[in-house]
Amino acid sequence: MASITIYHNPACGTSRNTLALIRNSGAEPEVIEYLKTPPTKVQLQQLLAAMGIGARALLREKGTPYAELGLADAKWSDDELLDFVVQHPILMNRPVVVTPLGTKLCRPSEAVLDILPDPQRAAFSKEDGEAVVNAQGQRV
To answer: From 137's CA, which of 8, 22, 55, 124 has a CA 20 to 30 Å away?
Structure first.
């Protein structure tokens, strides 16, 4: 069984759908509720490197102190932006999933299908009813 980790926020529908898709493949991931157990700056740097993205691409604006902190200003370096994420974990966009096939910010939730080592075992629809996987376990 492949090792999978999800940086999860149970209050987020996208994160809940992503976790459900992981489980629909038969895997039980390590679930890190990053608001309760925030990643360190080093862990964030490792995640960014694995995803091949900069810190700005990991930032969430909605429902966070993004605007209040002036994070839209291009003056902030990746290093400084990560300091803000460490201080305010809610700034981290979610969910981030780590599998043996890669690391990805899974927005939309079905993006996780690209990095899951095992196929879907059953049909799956998102919480809003949108079909993602058919009865044969294939993406629709």
So the answer is: 8
